[in-house]
Amino acid sequence: MSPDGTESWRTSPGGLVTALEPMMRAADGAWVGWPGVADRSFEPFEKDGISLIPVPLDELELEQFYEGFSNDTLWPLYHDVIAPPSYHREWWDAYVTVNRRFAAAAASAAASGATVWVHDYQLQLVPRMLRDMRPDLVIGFFNHIPFPPYGIYSQLPWRKQIVDGLLGADLIGFQRIADAGNFSRAVRRLFGYPTRGAAIDVPSEGGQRRRVIAKQFPISIDAASYEELARRPDIQERARQIREDLGNPKTIMLGVDRLDYTKGIGHRIKAYGELLADGSLSVEDVTLVQVASPSRERVGTYRALRDEIELAVGRLNGDFSTISHTAISYHHHGYPREEMVALYLAADVMLVTALRDGMNLVAKEYVAVRFDADGILVLSEFAGAADELKQAILVNPHDIDGVKAAILRAIVMPRTERTRRMRALRRKVFDNDVAAWSAAFLRTLTEGAAVQPGVPDNLNAALREISEAENLLVALDFDGTLAPHVDQPEDARAVEGTREAVQRLLDLPGVRVAFVSGRALVSLQQVAQPPSDVLLTGSHGIEVQLDTPDIELGLVAAELEQLDALAGVLEQISGSVSGTWIERKPAGLALHTRLATPQDGAAAQRRAREETEQLLPGLTVREGKNVLEFSVRSSTKGDALERLREHTGADRVLYAGDDVTDEDAFAVLREGDVGLKIGAGVSLADYSVRGPLEVTEVLRLIAGFRGTSPDR
Ligand code: GDG
Question: Apex CA 352: angle with CA 350 and CA 353, to 5°?
């Protein structure tokens, strides 16, 4: 609302909007969000080529959903309970209601098969709600704040609902690798779903499974636009003015934060105060400028924090300031971006001492602005930015002596070292800017979503290259890769043409072919009928048959006993649930539920998990499509592939597979190898094709490239 009473829309400031705006325009996207005022509803409208869909919140919802559950429950919980989280059931109810409203708004705005990207901790239930409403959508979620370790997360009374809400997404992005790891651990602890690396396999309707990826995508800023501002003569003049107004001290230190208890403002002031008290620093030489922008002022903890910080600032200034020199120049306002940039330019030392921070964009902004390759960043190791900005002076903000030492070190650091560090920091920030961040996220999200028939060009090129290897190993999963999935495992057969293509490869010098299966070896031999030169591994690598007719395996007495006990448990379950049966494997047993109703199948699997966990802890449990496998030995297709690589002495490997268990093999691929995922879904493999017909084509292509290669 402008002073003359007319209403207009203002773009909210910040890196996220800047980053997503061009992409939204290009993609013909719609932005679903809260318009920023309570108790008002607005019709969807267009602004600068982006369609905006306002979702209303009333005053009570603002209090309970936003200030309450989002900022007084989730925010402190996710930031290591620095402040105690409040748990109120009515806040939770409001959170569910508002999340449903956002999901419904997105569901009605999205075209068929569209991509929806949900942002931040206020909307963690939206992915699941949206998937239930619109199973056709591709859904991504990005969490801007940390995801806490399970020991802390488990406090949340609604811990299962939130994790389940997030698992509705295809891709869940976090700031740090540690956040993604904490989330995967929460999934395992709360639901027992199998996770491997970044991949989580979530059971869905009809006994199918859905692949969800949880991975780090560290957010960034529009670095070039910050540098552009910093190069403006008027802003440089303003920076000089700021220095002068502060009395041209030798060193200006700067803190810029929302006034939030996660930012460690008090710790920074304490360290500075002690340095002044013990005479290491004097206000004639050093000034600290602290911008504390007003934030969440209706939440009690924030009001208390403001009092605490302002008391500390007042005391410190009372103790140390002189008429001409102020110890802390403290500002409880928001400033225009131009002024922020001038402050960054004026500051010799930037202090970022967050106790916990998802990323901390201020640290990156400071670096982007310093085109003069000067200035020192003191950065908390508890800010996500510390994963990338290693050439900062990293500190543990709880260690006040450590912070004091870092400040002193920064103040005396020679120009050459400052430049060396700042150059390295700038490379990081400019190489990984916010456009690269959103592109990386969206590429991962949409790549696996729909696989076209045929062999894509990039795969073709990779095959041509790998065909030139001295010793090539082509390792192939069987079910779902060479043979379509069928109801009865014994009916599986490779698609036509596979056998000939495999034989062509076997006839070439320096090429070995292996089948890598979860099936027991005898079963694999029976369905695959492999030519005799094919190397075989079954039962996820427990059984191997390498260039001799002997199958290698061996279980010790304790493992055999475990196997008997396991059979007892599973036979009871399968005897009482129709449509389930047991398959015996050399080192374990599998409970199949393919012919049971989805509910019965899921219940049987749950019971099997629970009972074996109690009776036989330590068994390896693996979930496949409608099958739960238990083994007394742990081995994966990754182990199988490593064994094959060693046996064949291959210098390049192509591995193709369709299942979650094949991700273990993709995970051990090396530089120059080719991982090929069969079917849709996110995967660690770099390439994907639609189905077994394409795999046969891939084998033919390799044989063709290699057969015509001039070296051979
Ligand atoms: C959350 C996560 C994560 C601050 N005061 C003023 C002002 N700012 C701008 C800064 C910066 C932004 O606000 C603050 O971003 P941070 O990353 O430092 O922190 P949060 O607000 O807590 O953000 C955080 C981020 O989301 C993104 O994912 O990095 O970890 O907590 O851009 O410059 N801007 C202006 N005047 C001010 O007074 N113009």
Answer: 135
Give 408's contacts (C-beta < 8 A, 6+ positions apart).
275, 280, 281
What letter represents residue 698's amino acid?
V
CA 651 to each of CA 77, 308, 513: distance values in angstroms, whole numbers, following the listed order: 48, 63, 14
Q: In this predicted model, what pLDDT tens digit does every residue of 77-99 receive, in sequence order?
A: 999 999 999 999 999 999 999 99
CA of 677 to the centre of ligand 1 (A): 39
In ligand 1, the atom with minimum distance to the C-alpha of 263 is 22
For ligand 1, atom 20, which residue shows the shortest CA distance? Answer: 360
3-state SS of 273-336 is: HHHHHCCCCCCCCEEEEEEEECCCCCCHHHHHHHHHHHHHHHHHHHHHCCCCCCCEEEECCCCC
Instruction: State which of 258, 332, 365 you would mutate to test the pocket of ligand 1, scoring each by most atoms of that ligand within 8 A of its C-beta.
Output: 258
Is the shortest distance between the CB of 359 and ligand 1 below 6 Å? yes
**Crossing angle of the two packed helices 265-277 and 300-320, in degrees rounded to 10:** 10
Ligand 1 geometric centre to CA of 257 (Å): 7
The answer to whether 388 touches 381, Cβ cutoff 8 Å, is no
Nearest atom within ligand 1 for CA of residue 357: 30
Question: Among 360, 432, 433, 438, which residue has the most ligand 1 atoms within 8 Å of its CB, making it the best to mutate?
Answer: 360
Q: Write the residue with the smallest CA distance to atom 37 of ligand 1.
A: 334
Rounded distance, CA 523 to CA 490, Å? 8
pLDDT, mean of each 10-residue run, the chain (712 residues): 70 66 75 90 86 94 96 97 97 98 96 92 98 92 97 97 97 96 96 86 76 92 95 98 96 96 97 98 98 92 96 98 96 94 98 97 97 98 97 98 98 97 97 91 75 83 94 96 85 92 95 94 92 91 84 69 89 91 87 91 91 84 85 83 94 93 90 91 83 93 82 48
Q: Give the total residue count for the chain.
A: 712
The closest alpha carbon to 644, from 555, 510, 515, belongs to: 515
The sign of the CA dihedral 64, 70, 71, 76 is positive
For ligand 1, say whether the CB of 256 is within 6 Å of any of its atoms: yes
Ligand 1 close to Cβ of residue 354 (< 6 A): no
Distance between CA atoms of residues 522 and 391, nearest Å: 56
pLDDT tens across 107-142, in order?
999 988 889 999 999 999 999 999 999 988 999 999
pTM: 0.72
Distance 365 CA to ligand 1 centre (A): 10
Specify the residue with its C-alpha closest to ligand 1, atom 6.
Answer: 334
Separation of CA 380 from chain center: 21
Residues 6+ apart with CB under 8 A from 624: 518, 590, 659, 660, 661
Q: Which residues contact 23 (CB under 8 A, 6 or more apart)?
A: 29, 438, 442
